[in-house]
Amino acid sequence: MIEVIGHEQQRRLLAAKPAQSYLFVGPEGVGRRTVARWFAYGLNCERGFPPCGECASCRLEKHPDYLEISPRTTTRSGQTARRPQIRLEQIAPREGSEEPSLIEWMQTAPRFKAKVAVIDSAHLLGEQAANALLKLLEEPPSYGYVVLIAPVREAVLPTLASRSLTIGFGPAPMNELRRITSDEAALGYSEGAVGRLLKALAEPEKLRAAEDAAVAWLEALGDPAALLAQTRRLEQTSGEGFDPWVFVARRLESWPAAYRLAALEELQRLREELSAYVSAELAYTRLALAMRRIYAEMRSGSPVSR
Ligand SMILES: [Zn+2]
Predict the structure, then answer these.
(1) CA 103 – ligand 1 centroid, Å
(2) At a CB cut-off of 8 Å and minimum separation 6, what does 119 contact?
(3) Å from CA of 34 to ligand 1 middle
(4) How does pLDDT run across 182-231, given as a tens digit for each residue?
(5) Is the pTM of this model over 0.85?
C-alpha cells in the first residue's frame, strides 16, 4: 500500500485523469515519485481511486504496468559519465540494447488497466531521447500514461512541457510531518519534504554530524582562520548525504533581516562559484572573508556594506 503524505489537491486532480502526459515539478524529496506510483496504482485498482490496497493489482509490490526511467550515470563502455543523461536507447528501440525501451514497453497491452511510465529527471533527457519521447506524448496508446519529473517546468524542453499537464508539488505542511516524528532536527532538515525527512530519520548520526558542523561554523564567524577551516569541514560533511548549509540557513533566521539576506547571498554565491568550477579554496576564502565582514557589521550595528 502506498502511503502519501499531503498533496491532496494534486491527487484529487489526478484521480479525474485529466490528461495522458504530466509534468510533476517540485523540490527533491517532496513526493513527486510517490504520487506518480499512487497514480499508477489508482489507475489499475479494481475499485479505482484512491487505490484500495487490497485488490490483485494493489497487492503487487513490483507492478508490471509501472516503469521508472532514470538517468544513466555510466557510459555505454561502463565508465562514469561526466553528466548523467537519459539516453535514446532507454526511450526508443536500438539494436544491441539489452533492456526493452520505453516505447517497446508501451506497445504491449497492460496486465491490468493502464500503463504508467515515469521519466525521472526529465531535464536530463538527451536531445534524441527527447525527440523520441515527444512522438509517444503526441500519440500515446489509449491505456498509456507518461509522468515527467523535473525540478521546475523551465528545466524541461518546451516541446515536452507544452504537451504535458504541469502539476506543482510544494513542501508538506509541518503539522502533517509531525504525525511522522517529533524529532526537531529531522523536521528542520526536511524543509517540508517527506523524502528528506525519512532520510534524516534513517541516518540520525550523519544528520547530527551535519548539524554539529553547522554550529561550529557559526561559532567561528569572528575568527577568519577558524572560519576557513570550518568551511572546508562543512563542505566535506556535505558529501556524506546531508547538507549542513541547511542548518546554517535555519540558524541565520535569528539574525536581523538585512544581515541575514547578505549572508544568504554569500552562501548562494558559494554554490554558484563551486558549480562553475572556481577553485574551491578560493571560493571558501572569499566566503570566509565576506561572512566575517557581515558578522562584524552586525555586531557593531553598522549597516551592511557591499
Ligand atoms: Zn485496489
Answers:
(1) 26
(2) 69, 86, 102, 125, 133, 146, 147, 148, 149
(3) 16
(4) 999 899 899 888 888 999 999 999 999 999 999 999 999 988 889 999 99
(5) no
